[in-house]
Specification:
The chain is α+β, with helices and mostly antiparallel strands and 139 residues long. It is built from 3 helices and 4 strands; from the N terminus they run αααββββ.
Length: 139
Amino acid sequence: MKTLIALTIAGFVLAACGTSTPTTPSTPQSAAAPAAKPDDTAALDWIRKTTDAEGTFFKQNRRYAIEFQELVEAHLLDKEPSAAGYQFNLRPTPDASAYKLSVVPAEANSAARYFFTDQSGVIHTETGKDATVESPNVQ
């Protein structure tokens, strides 16, 4: 009789384990980790490094690199550009005779700086919106 009671209790425990929901606390969407504060100095440093690397790549290949990985493989950059709070976007022309590099905040922000350069090497900036060739030069 004791064995039957023990088996019955064990059955209920096992059944309950299979239908229980996890008790792991979940993080509400609104409590997501804040984005890193954009590091303008690091972004500008990477823009200058990329501009120099593209210039050297062009001299060696008579075209600009199509993606950052080409600059890394050519040992012109140590790694793909990165700076806290920024995204780097390299857009060459179809024949790679020119390129545009835009560096934008990872999260849109009216107080954040946006950067732009091209094969001219002149760096342009705007606050709160995309920078273009028409934007003020970085001083």
